[in-house]
């Protein structure tokens, strides 16, 4: 397993700081008083089972989630601040590409939105060429997006997010459905982006073996942060061989606390 070294202090120069973060949707509290930090220039994994609130949390960070309470600072500004739009790249679970355009035409379109006008023509061409190379789609640049595989379409979405050289890149389960080779290549790309450009990456997943590829982890359960630490520290603290075993240990402990709390609440008064 490759060792991804990182600074031990996540609060130093943090890209994201959340305090008492809450979100309510359809009358249900989805995020429940979350406190955490995402260190700058590192790959932070957001891991937890489907339905635990990962996507809602990512939407809150990029500023597209309504009814967010608490404090959420992103790159030194309140989440959703208009000044953050050009500084954040967001890749959703569903590929955001036009099927009737080629890979390059998709990127040309989005580059024109980011850098409009004739004065930026050379900058747009440079950004598109770099993004195509970043995601290893040079051989498919002139292929219609609708004819690409699912993994290739996901890489086009990632290329779109990389056009503006974002300071923060938020990726919602980008490796779902990919074969092991593509997953490995994407994770290697994530680390190159962090190392070479100083970009902060927040990558969500429900696949626990991907936790070992992150500098730091946020483990979620039912809208709460169970743990926030490096993979090595989580394994050591819970005396387990893998992060998955550490996560299950934390889930069982949280469930036991919930049962004890419920039992105490339901005890009849004398």
TrEMBL record:
Q: Where is the ABC transporter domain?
A: 16-247
Q: Where is the signal peptide?
A: none
> What GO terms are given for molecular function?
ATP binding
Q: Name one Pfam family in it.
A: ABC_tran
Q: Which UniProt keywords apply?
A: ATP-binding, Nucleotide-binding
InterPro entries, from UniProt? AAA+_ATPase, ABC_transporter-like_ATP-bd, ABC_transporter-like_CS, P-loop_NTPase
This chain's protein is named ABC transporter ATP-binding protein
Look up and give the organism this protein is from: Streptomyces litmocidini
Q: Print the organism lineage.
A: Bacteria, Bacillati, Actinomycetota, Actinomycetes, Kitasatosporales
């Amino acid at each position: 397993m490759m060792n991804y070294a990182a600074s031990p202090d996540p609060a130093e120069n943090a890209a994201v700081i959340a305090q008492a973060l809450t979100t309510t949707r359809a009358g249900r509290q989805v995020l429940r008083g979350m406190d955490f930090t995402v260190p700058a220039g590192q790959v932070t994994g957001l891991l937890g089972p489907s339905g635990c609130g990962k996507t809602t949390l990512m939407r809150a960070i990029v500023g597209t989630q309504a009814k967010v309470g608490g404090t959420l600072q992103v790159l030194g500004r309140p989440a959703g601040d208009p000044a953050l739009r050009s500084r954040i790249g967001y890749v959703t679970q569903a590929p955001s590409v036009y099927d009737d355009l080629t890979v390059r035409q998709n990127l040309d379109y989005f580059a024109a939105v980011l850098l409009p006008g004739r004065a930026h023509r050379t900058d747009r061409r440079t950004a598109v060429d770099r993004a195509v190379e970043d995601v290893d789609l040079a051989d498919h640049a002139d292929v219609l997006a609708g004819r690409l595989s699912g993994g290739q379409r996901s890489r086009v979405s990632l290329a779109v997010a990389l056009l503006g050289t974002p300071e923060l890149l938020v990726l919602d389960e980008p490796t779902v459905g990919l074969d092991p080779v593509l997953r490995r290549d994407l994770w290697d790309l994530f680390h190159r982006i962090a190392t070479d450009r100083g970009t902060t990456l927040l990558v969500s997943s429900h696949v626990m073996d991907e936790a070992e590829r992150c500098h730091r982890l946020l483990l979620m359960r039912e809208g709460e942060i169970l743990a926030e630490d490096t993979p090595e520290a989580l394994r050591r603290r819970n005396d387990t061989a893998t992060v998955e075993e550490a996560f299950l240990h934390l889930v069982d402990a949280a469930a036991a606390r919930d049962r004890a709390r419920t039992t105490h609440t339901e005890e009849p008064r004398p």
